[in-house]
Design brief:
Radius of gyration: 38 Å
Shape: flat
Structural class: alpha+beta
Number of strands: 17
Distance between the termini: 122 Å
Helix content: 40-55%
Largest sheet: 6 strands, antiparallel
Strand content: 15-25%
Length: 627
């Protein structure tokens, strides 16, 4: 009705005024915060460590951390040392990162999202997840891919960065596409927490502004854009050119945007309501920084930073020593330079008042520089040969420098890499070769436990971030009720190398552990051997399932084969195992893809001819030894 329509218009106008007042109020708070140029109390610390971490991880900017020895080298020598330095920081940082990549590849992670049977919204959440870090079409760079790669990189390079989940506004019938927006520690100006919950974040970013100059031409310039994130909304403020907006018919949304002028510049403020009861963002780090009483975070190899700094200095000196000193030196007697001609004689490198062109001012006769040249000496007369003949071994001498110092420096650098691993993992398992590491079971266990202690906090943070992202997706899908969300890593992260597992198997055999226990270790070894080869893994575990004496030692098998308590079928299967499975594969190449019951049926049928043939040969063979 007409009266109902009028009432709806009044409600809409009232809502728009309230919305407009909210923008003005938030903008006022934002401008006050920005004018004070206030940054959080630990801003300098977070920016400083992020810069140093990134330099060591990427290798870019490491020169800034090389120190000049003021008493021993001038600026020119220092610059030369920097040019000669080939740091190992990037290599060491990479080796420290690799075990963290193994964490996300664990196949026994328990994750669950249950929207109480709402399959429609579960499908929407799945689509948001798959397109989180890429596109939905690829379906390979979603949340899990981002966590395995980019999140891990940020953990090591900028633990105080924030990641905010953002999305563009869509029509009601369209699914929004969330994506991760990174706020580096340098751009995270100010934030507030209450009981560990993020209440406010002020971030800066750089964008390109197009404006129209006095001649009517378009020009581009870089501008700072600020965003104030709060619970339920975000306010984005950026500079704009009204002339460009007018020329391109770009309109200001009166409901969600407002403009203002300050210091002769025009700004536009945009308010976005998230309708969430939390800020959809989190800080990357999880290891508290003791220097700020836990208000900020450090990266996983912070405990190894003293070794990184020492290695930078040691490698610099080693490279300099090798380049400048570690090469054979040649000592040789040569004749004085005779000059360019009889009229242009050379006297101590000077010929005709100018530098001699033949010897380049050295005053010595040029020596051979390639294998095609030779030093020619006149043969003395026969009667003078005894007195004038020169011992050629004494004409030229090669001197090699002592390398004890170089060996010491090289060993020192290698030890620093080992010490870095020990400080992070309390283990050198990932850098020692298998022969060195396969020691006693006690050492194996201690090394493994040290690694678990290091990686466990990371698994907790990993799960927390995954659940945060899913919670945002669920709310964006329109689901408002309670839901079940689960993400848990197993206690065994499957980080043991083959050397560790072989050590455990050796201990299990020596202690006469049950066969099923030894069998479990063998299965773990097989998982590593067939990593990436799904068909090979399927064939192995199918054969393993039917193998008669899995987990038994050789002596145990020999005893069972002679025992009357083991069936004839089992003995024949063991003795002819490879031959029987070769027959099966020839008859049915898809055998390994079949169900267990069907596989068992085929195995029995294939084994029957072997059983019958052996029964027919049950009479012992008689041999006439006298023949």
């Amino acid at each position: 009705t007409l009266s109902g329509l009028v009432e709806r218009i009044k409600i809409c106008n009232k809502f728009e005024k309230k919305y407009k007042m909210e923008i003005i109020q938030k903008l006022s708070e934002f401008r006050k915060l920005l004018k004070k140029n206030k940054k959080h109390s630990d801003y300098a610390r977070t920016v400083e460590i992020a810069k140093e971490y990134k330099a060591h991880v990427s290798g870019v900017g490491l020169d800034d951390y090389l120190k000049q020895f003021a008493k021993r080298e001038d600026l020119e020598m220092f610059e030369q040392r920097k040019r000669l330095t080939n740091s190992i920081s990037q290599s060491v940082a990479s080796s420290l990162q690799k075990p963290f990549y193994k964490v996300a590849r664990n196949k026994n992670i328990k994750n669950k999202l249950d929207l109480k049977g709402d399959k429609t919204r579960e499908a929407i959440v799945s689509e948001m997840s798959s397109g989180f870090y890429g596109t939905n079409e690829l379906n390979s760079k979603g949340v899990d891919f981002w966590l395995r790669n980019r999140f891990l990189e940020l953990t090591f390079t900028d633990p105080n960065a924030f990641v905010v989940i953002e999305w563009e506004a869509k029509n009601l019938n369209e699914i929004v596409e969330p994506y991760p927006y990174e706020v580096t520690s340098e751009n995270a100006f100010y934030y507030k927490y209450k009981n560990g919950v993020l209440q406010m974040l002020l971030s800066r970013q750089f964008e390109t502004m197009i404006s129209i100059d006095a001649n009517g031409d378009e020009k581009e310039s870089s501008i700072e854009v600020y965003t104030l994130y709060e619970i339920g909304s975000s306010l984005k403020v950026k500079q704009y050119d009204p002339k460009f907006y007018q020329a391109n018919n770009i309109t200001i949304n009166a409901k969600t945007q407002t403009t203002f002028e300050e210091d002769g510049k025009h700004f536009i403020a945009t308010l976005n309501e998230t309708n969430l009861d939390f800020i959809p963002g989190f800080r990357v780090g999880y290891i508290r920084d003791s220097s700020t009483d836990g208000r900020t975070f450090v990266n996983p190899f912070e405990s190894a930073m003293p070794y990184f700094r020492k290695a930078l200095k040691a490698v610099s000196e080693l490279d300099l020593s090798i380049t400048l000193h570690t090469f054979p030196q040649k000592l040789q007697y040569v004749q004085p330079c005779q000059g360019e001609s009889k009229t242009k004689r050379c006297v101590n490198g000077i010929s005709g008042g100018e530098t001699c062109k033949k010897c380049k001012g050295s005053g010595l006769q040029p020596i051979h520089k390639t294998g095609q040249d030779a030093i020619l000496l006149p043969m003395p007369k026969k009667e003078d040969m005894k007195d004038e003949l020169i011992d050629l071994d004494k004409l030229i001498a090669y001197k090699t420098p002592p390398i004890e110092l170089i060996k010491f420096q090289d060993e020192y650098v290698r030890n620093l890499k080992t010490d870095a691993h020990l400080s992070v993992y309390n283990s050198n398992m990932f850098i020692a070769n298998e022969a060195e590491f396969a020691k006693t079971a006690t050492e194996v266990n201690l090394n493994t436990q040290g690694i678990f202690d290091t990686l466990f906090p990371y698994t907790e943070k990993f799960s927390e971030v995954w659940k945060t992202a899913m919670k945002v997706f669920v709310r964006l899908s329109g689901f408002v009720g309670d839901f079940e969300l689960l993400h848990i890593f197993p206690m065994d992260l499957e980080l043991k190398t083959k050397a560790v597992l072989m050590g455990e198997l050796k201990l299990a055999n020596e202690s006469e552990a049950p066969s099923y226990f030894r069998d479990a270790i063998l299965n773990e070894i097989a998982n590593q051997v067939y990593e990436g080869d799904e068909l090979g893994k399927l064939k192995h575990f199918t054969r393993h399932r039917f193998f008669p004496f899995s987990g038994k030692t050789e002596s145990e098998i020999q005893f069972l084969m002679s025992s009357p308590y083991v069936s004839t079928f089992t003995k024949i299967l063991y003795a002819n195992f490879e031959a029987i499975f070769t027959d099966i594969e020839k008859a049915d190449p898809k055998f390994y893809l079949l169900a267990y019951d069907k596989q068992w049926e085929i195995l029995n049928e294939t084994a029957k001819p072997y059983i019958e043939e052996i029964k027919q040969q049950s009479e012992p063979m008689r041999i006439d030894w006298g023949a």
